[in-house]
Amino acid sequence: MRYQVPDFLKIDCKKVFDLITDFIRTKTEEAKAKGVVMGLSGGTDSTVTAKLAVEALGKDNVLVLIMPEIESNPEDIRDAVEYAEMLGLNYKRIEITRIIESILESCGDNYYSAPKIAKGNVKARARMVILYYFANKMNKLVLGAGDKSEILLGYFTKYGDGGVDLLPLGDLFKSQVRLLGDFLELPEKLVWKPPSPGLWPGHKAAEELGATYGVIDPILYLFERGRSSDEIAKELRIKKSLVNRIIQMVRKSEHKRRMPPICKIT
Fold this sequence. Notes:
With 266 residues, the protein is mainly α. 52% of the residues lie in helices and 6% in strands. The protein has twelve helices and four strands, in the order αβαβαβααβααααααα.
């Protein structure tokens, strides 16, 4: 659902477009890779990332994988397929249900008995295994679609969708990604689609996070700039308890943004 993005979050979309496409092109050339491979979910971030990759490298150098499983939202899969075809992309649809079943059964569980969050993270990590298989096989880089909002909140799976080679949207808040999507004239129903990680049936980001990105992004922006929770709540006219909740998520997820701690011997 479209919302009003505050002025302090607005960006020079043409400049950002040039910076990101140059970043993708340069990093791919430096790695001597033959393009990129990425997952396409039918959501905002992967929609914008795929378009940027095509603009940077040409559609023949971008492989997208659509990886549904038995609990996936059929509408999201249809959106992903239609969008890939709209861009003229080479895409592969790979059903991962059997892979997830095999992992869960090896652990003594199944789709119905496995804990929801643990199972959801298995799905994200299985998808990344497949992406890296094709990357290794075809000498490509894995292009991530995570944005700054998700990275700060820790709203991604460690070694799943967070385990990539490049994060072109990693310095843009979700709201800014949407503005960039509008600039690129991408389908509104995808750019402004309510975020749904899809790790379990009915999984909605707003319900899990306790607020929409229209509320979260301004909190994150001001927190990054050193504002206290009292100042943020007052400026945005929202409850301090919500501000504290978002800030606590940032602090608790710090480990996701760092390499594993090493025990120093020398």
